[in-house]
Specification:
275 residues; alpha+beta; 3 domains; five-stranded mixed β-sheet; 6 helices; 28% helix
């Protein structure tokens, strides 16, 4: 029952955040412990915040708020009350926020898209606790990818096969090789903004395969530039997953959400985004 109530509260909070999206000036990039917005229960991660909204943090609780226009992030620690203003978060009581300047610029559009996706997923899975799924067994399976040198993955009990990669519309493969295990990494880079099809076959048996398109060169450069280190701030890794989602690299975004969800089991909405 508590799991159901928690999931439904998350959906209600997401709906409220969508209602104020037009006036949103900031959004939540991290939170731990007892955090409330305008007296309501803990908001989901990535909820938008409008001018004048108030955050209340309990003892030893934490929250981080990033402004959409500037990318400036405010780290809050409880106990305390904080007010969202046009360009900054001010302390009404408690410790003053600690600020951090970043290069991130999330858009209202992607925040709303992710909020809607997470809310629907949490609602559908409200009868049980959401869990992060492991990395997809086939990659790339479909859609766009954010790398020119992917590691192809497939699931098969057969340890050996023939790997073939072709540009869609061309008869001659651009790469062929023997593959062992369930992964294969290209030695050379692919072309940006190009559609490919790949397959791994053992005789007449197909072990894995898919069709995908590499992102344009400028998008790939943007992603590579923003890719955070393994021990980077939690909010930086959150924003990186958002960037992958925004640029259409859906499968890689799901894997990024899954890694974050495994790290933060107290944020069930992350697990819902990994699906």
């Amino acid at each position: 029952m508590r799991t159901i109530q928690r999931a439904l509260l998350a959906v209600v909070a997401f709906a409220a955040s969508l209602a104020i999206a037009a006036d949103g000036v900031a959004f939540i990039t991290n939170l731990k412990g007892e955090v409330a917005v305008d007296g309501n229960s803990r908001p989901p991660i990535l909820s938008e915040l409008a001018r004048g909204q108030k955050l209340t943090l309990g003892k030893e609780s934490q929250a981080a708020v990033m402004y959409i226009a500037s990318g400036k992030e405010y780290a809050l620690r409880g106990p305390g009350e904080y007010v969202v203003k046009e360009t900054e978060v001010a302390a009404a009581s408690g410790m003053p926020p600690v600020t951090r300047n970043t290069e991130w610029r999330a858009t209202n559009k992607v925040l709303v898209q992710v909020a809607q996706s997470s809310a629907a997923s949490v609602r559908m899975r409200s009868i049980g606790p959401p869990k992060a799924e492991p990395a997809k067994s086939v990659f790339p399976a479909k859609g766009n990818i954010a790398t020119l040198q992917p590691t192809f993955k497939w699931a098969s009990a057969n340890p050996k096969g023939e790997f073939t990669l072709s540009v869609v519309g061309e008869d001659k493969p651009v790469h062929q090789a023997k593959a062992g295990g369930t992964t294969y990494r290209l030695g050379a880079k692919l072309k940006p903004d190009t559609e490919y099809v790949w397959a791994v076959n053992a005789g007449t048996q197909e072990l894995g395969g898919g069709k995908f398109r590499t992102l344009p060169g400028d998008a790939i450069q943007r992603i590579e530039k923003r890719k955070p280190e393994e021990k980077a701030e939690f909010s930086d890794r959150i924003l990186y997953a958002l960037l992958l989602h925004e640029l259409g690299a859906a499968q890689e975004a799901q894997e990024a959400w899954a890694r974050l969800a495994q790290e933060r089991s107290d944020l069930p909405e992350l697990a819902s985004l990994a699906r």
